[in-house]
Amino acid sequence: MIAQSKGKKNKQFVEKLIPFILFLIASVSVLTTIGIMLTLIVETITFFTRVSITEFIFGTTWLPFSNKEAQYGILPLIVGTLKVTLIAILVAVPIGISAAIYLSDYASENVRRVLKPMLEVLAGIPTIVYGFFALTFVTPVLQGFFPDIKIFNAISPGIVVGIMIIPMIASLSEDAMSSVPKSIREGALAMGSTKFEVAWKITVPAAMSGIVASVVLAVSRAIGETMIVSLAAGSTPRFDGDFTGSIQTMTAYIVQVSKGDAGYGTTIYYSIYAVGFTLFIFTMLMNIAANYVSKRFREEY
Amino acid sequence: MSMTHVLDQKNKTAGYEAEGTAAAASRSVYETKQLNLWYGANHALKNIELDIKENEVTAIIGPSGCGKSTYLKTLNRMVELVPSVKTSGQILYRGRNIFDKDYGVEELRTRVGMVFQKPNPFPKSIYDNIAYGPRIHGIKNKKILDEIVEKSLRGAAIWDEVKDRLNENAYSVSGGQQQRICIARALAIEPDVILMDEPTSALDPISTLKIEELVQELKKDYSIIIVTHNMQQAARISDKTAFFLNGEVIEYDKTDTIFSNPSDKRTEDYISGRFG
């Protein structure tokens, strides 16, 4: 009976069909990615038929809405993005790595069981909420200490983007540190090392590739972050070193145009693709760097 | 020369001689008194009494789960890494109770090195593995570190095999070589005692032989306590042997006596292979 039913034609046909269907479904995501890439590239090329590529890359003024002559130098937007990213890194790297060291080398099993899911909840908060938090809480607090800070600035969203990526750094770094074998730690403890020496001189170096990869991924997330900067950083593209006043990041510019009334086919319309493409190059480079780093700095054990 | 001075001189000599004879009769490194240990509710060590002498190889044998590794790890308090461990009684190391509140565990472990069952070098270069201990104890001078690294690797009989590859990762050498690197790493902090927890159980016969020869060499300068499940090994390399069973010391004597003329029936049964 069983042998017979196995041999049934219908069943064989279904068996052959299933991989084909699964292949189609899997292709959808790949094809979507390719489609997005193509749109991005085609529209970017259109943009460069109207604006010279050297002006775009080296120009230091971003004035697309000017009545007289629009200027499309992307450097102010890149600088805006980098300001926010820099502050985010300064906030997130020390806190994230300290948290990872605590979780992997100090916390008891019970503490870890409570803390790690809490960190991951932090990662699940919608970014718009972080944006409001930056605008309505962090900025006023900062203004209390430094009255020179404007309502829109780079510092407050930078700090909040940093808070947003802490769980990513902490969680991924903790994974890397926890996978350092216990026997290696015991070897160090048995030589009279303190817990801190074990964490700092054994665990962290051994997990360095994972830690650096987590930081690079988190930075790439910070570069691409949109809602927080749209809400709290302002919309003033500036090519300078001031963190206290309104700035504009690449992502925030795209939002500004998308929700505005730039008509289809205008140069402004095409400019968001060019900016999007630049952003894409940035995050792609970061991801390649993360990959390279995690291979290059692997300490074998 | 005044009379008192001569007397002083004489007293000193006498004192020195007295010390000399005491050393000949061999001093204790570890005196264990009424040691009990629990893992939670599990009574793992029961009323252990052991007196371990200087510059000897003391082997601890017994079937799996008899508490031999636990006892070894108690000697440098590594056992405390297991949550829910409780101890009572005393272990005097050089006359001082290691469970005393003011006895720093780091200080103890600096004096008592340990070699583990599976080689566990740090994922660093061979050089950095050996230099790790001296470095955490404050030695930064490159020349001194170089000397310590060479001396320790020579001491662990592996210098000739790795001297040209000190900057390679310690995991790039064979398991037996890794284990000798771990021994060299322990030697680098100039310990007084070396604890070995089945150091050859993960190694091939040739590497095992090398480590056994090394142990014979090391006992001139160090006191060695070795846990082994391999009775032949205990018979070959140790001066004294303690037989553990179910958390108790059944018999502790000269290795020759234990293996040729054990006084307890259970010891005889174990070494003749009737159980374990």
Structural shape of chain A? globular
Quaternary state, please?
A: heterodimer
Number of helices of chain A: 13
Average residue-wise pLDDT of chain A: 91
What form of chain B results from the Cα inertia axes?
A: globular
What do you see in this structure?
The complex is a heterodimer of chains A (301) and B (276). Chain A is mostly helical. Chain A has helices at 2-7, 9-50, 53-58, 75-106, 109-122, 127-145, 155-178, 182-189, 195-206, 208-224, 227-232, 250-259, 267-296; strands at residues 62-63, 71-72. Chain A contains 13 helices and 2 strands; from the N terminus they run αααββαααααααααα. The longest helix of chain A has 42 residues, at 9-50. Chain A starts with a helix and ends in a 5-residue tail after the last helix. Chain B is α/β, with parallel strands linked by helices. Chain B has helices spanning 3-24, 68-75, 105-111, 126-136, 142-155, 159-162, 175-187, 205-218, 231-237, 255-260, 265-271, and strands at residues 28-39, 42-53, 57-61, 85-93, 96-97, 112-115, 193-197, 223-227, 240-245, 248-254. In chain B, the strands form 2 sheets. In chain B, strands 6-7-8-3-9-10 form a 6-stranded mixed sheet, sandwiched between helices. A 4-stranded antiparallel sheet of chain B has the order 2-1-4-5, with helices on one face. Chain B is globular, with a radius of gyration of 20 Å. Chain B starts with a helix and ends in a 5-residue tail after the last helix. Chain A binds chain B through residues 108-109, 180-181, 183-184, 186-194, 197, 201-202, 205-206, 299-301, and chain B through 76, 78, 81, 83, 106-110, 113-114, 116, 118, 120-124, 132-133, 136-137, 169, 171-172, 182, 185-186, 189.
